[in-house]
């Protein structure tokens, strides 16, 4: 079986999509190829998103926002958008999901934690739908 590729897309690729990619990488490991991008990427990751993920033991500080390309969408099996609207190209045969999540931009850590926790829940559900459960020994 080939490794599924998941692309997380939000406008700035600085908060939601970075947290989702961080969770997917940490929880699925090499069972899923993880990518993220933004339709209008910022210069750096939201420092509050970095702090919120660090509380979970996940380091996203070394990541950088990337611009969304048609190739990134074409090469992905699952495209998950988070408030980027019509900026994402649509290709037949792809699985698309739109996760309605509050934007952590400009929010304090108290407001970002519930967004982070919602992302984790959705990522866990996504993993269960993409990757067969490992057999128990």
Automatic annotation (TrEMBL):
Which GO biological process entries does UniProt record here?
response to arsenic-containing substance
Q: Where are the transmembrane segments?
A: none
- Keywords linked to the UniProt accession: Arsenical resistance
Listed InterPro entries: Ptyr_pPase, Ptyr_pPase_sf
Q: Does the keyword DNA repair apply?
A: no
> Which residue range or ranges hold the Phosphotyrosine protein phosphatase I domain?
4-129
Query: Where is the signal peptide, in residue numbers?
Result: none
Q: Would I find Kinase among this entry's keywords?
A: no
Please give the CDD domains that the UniProt record associates with this protein.
LMWP_ArsC
> What is the protein name stated in its UniProt record?
Arsenate reductase ArsC
């Amino acid at each position: 079986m080939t490794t599924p590729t998941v692309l997380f897309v939000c406008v700035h690729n600085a908060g939601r999509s970075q947290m989702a990619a961080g969770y997917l990488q940490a929880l699925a490991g090499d069972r899923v190829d993880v990518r993220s991008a933004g339709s209008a990427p910022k210069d750096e990751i939201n420092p509050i998103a970095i702090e919120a993920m660090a509380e979970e033991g996940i380091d996203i500080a070394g990541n950088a926002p990337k611009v969304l390309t048609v190739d990134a969408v074409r090469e992905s099996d699952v495209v998950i958008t988070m408030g980027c609207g019509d900026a994402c190209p649509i290709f037949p045969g792809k699985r698309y999901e739109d996760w309605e999540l509050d934007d952590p931009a400009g929010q304090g850590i108290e407001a970002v934690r519930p967004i982070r926790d919602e992302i984790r829940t959705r990522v866990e559900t996504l993993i269960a739908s993409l990757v067969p459960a490992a057999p128990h020994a």
